[in-house]
Amino acid sequence: MGRRTYKICTRCVMDTSDTQIKFDSKGVCNHCKEYDLVANGKKYSTKNKTVAKNEIISQIKKDGEGSEYDCIIGLSGGVDSSYLCYIAVKEFGLKPLIVHLDNGWNSKLATKNIQKIVRNLELDLYTHVIDWEEFKSLQLAFLKASVIDIELLTDYSINAITYKVAKEHNVQYILTGNNLATEKILPKSWTFNKDDLKNIISINKRFGSHEIKTFPTIARESYKEYKKQIKSFPMLNYIDYDKDEAKRIIINELRWEDYGGKHYESIFTRFYQGYILPQKFNVDKRRAHYSTEICSGLMTREKAIEKLKLPVYDEQLMKDDYEYVIKKLDLTKEEFEAIMKSPVKSHFDYDTTLESKLRKKLISPTNPLLKLYKKLF
To answer: Which pLDDT tens digit goes with each residue over 353-366?
Structure first.
């Protein structure tokens, strides 16, 4: 089969670096259509989302009456989660317990921002410090497996810890910073099922040097039970979320400091998005971020195209991060470059759950079988 002809969406900036992208007769991609389907649906219409937001907040307060905490918020120190903490306290009048996962890759600035948010909003913070040697082994296993979603490890463990803390404190609600305005578009070919513990175990068994003993996990049946008992709400979807305005507010009110990129509060994430993804997988995640903002009206396509011409991040910072990351992972430059040059593999080359296999086929919002999928999982 010949190499696919390059093509870019006429509405956003997603292109054929997403190997599964599809275009209509006008050159508009499937991601734009899926964004419109969700964003313009009844659930998030201006009237409905305001009503829903008020109902959710009222229910959280009612169920949390007399308790020390009425909800859980996971805080990374980034814009979305930081702003969520701010509005949860200042606008919603809630009593959140803040949960943070320290996986060994926090930048100094991220640590400072978390401290400022917790202190200025007078919140309690629960920090889970992951066992570094075990987590390092897992990250090295994923690198050696040549799969694209190395961040699956962090995302899975954050979910596990958040649900466990909610259960321990008898809190029925988790508020998340996930949002349509800046995050809706993310190709399936660039990521993987964040709940697939089976995939993590399979890759670690093949390439890891440590058994999984302390890494935060939840048995599949327990996880399904937690989801029944504990409701999760992406609260930024129920407001008119403008990321630039949110950033201005947390800078002024909480003395938050900017990282210069999405999810750059983590040194590894910065290096993963800025070096590993472009160099090994031909993926520039800025395309997905900017395309979402184009669809949500926060950025013009022309501005996105101009921004994509700029380097992913500062050249000197990249060199510093390169040295820091390979040293922290106990790799030589030669070992790391051998990993970078090894053939790309699919997560499906290793053991996966039935849910992941179904997601691969059914996850498109336009698929009529999606309702059945959601009932099963």
So the answer is: 988 888 776 555 45
Q: Which CATH number fits the domain that encloses residue 334?
A: 3.40.50.620
Query: In what helix (H) or strand (E) does residue 73 lie, and over which residues does it extend?
Result: strand 71-74
Q: Between β-strands 231-234 and 173-176, what pairing exists: parallel, antiparallel or unpaired?
A: parallel
**Type and span of the H or E element at 64:** none
Residue 361 lies in a domain: no
Token couple for 219: 């048995």
Q: For residues 203 and 35, what is the distance between their CA atoms, to the nearest angstrom?
A: 32
Residue 229 in domain: yes
Q: What is the three-state SS of 95-115?
A: CEEEEEEECCCECHHHHHHHH
Q: Which two tokens stand for residue 194?
A: 């964040």
Each residue of 300-357: pLDDT tens digit?
A: 999 999 999 999 888 999 999 999 999 999 999 999 999 999 999 999 999 999 888 8
Residue 263, classed as helix, strand or coil, is coil
Residues of the chain with pLDDT under 70: 1-3, 221, 261-263, 361-377
Q: CA 24, CA 28: separation in Å to the nearest integer?
A: 6
**What is the Cα–Cα distance from 368 to 377, expressed in whole angstroms?**
16
Cα–Cα nearest to 129, from 106, 101, 156, 165: 101
Question: Which SS3 state, helix, strand or coil, does residue 192 take?
Answer: coil
Using DSSP, state whether 82 is helix, strand or coil: helix
**Total tally of structural domains belonging to the chain:** 1
- Residue 238 within a domain: yes
Q: Which domain holds residue 239?
A: 46-290+313-352
* Residue 231, helix vs strand vs coil: strand
Task: Please check whether residue 322 is in contact with residue 267, taking contact to mean a CB–CB distance below 8 angstroms.
Answer: no
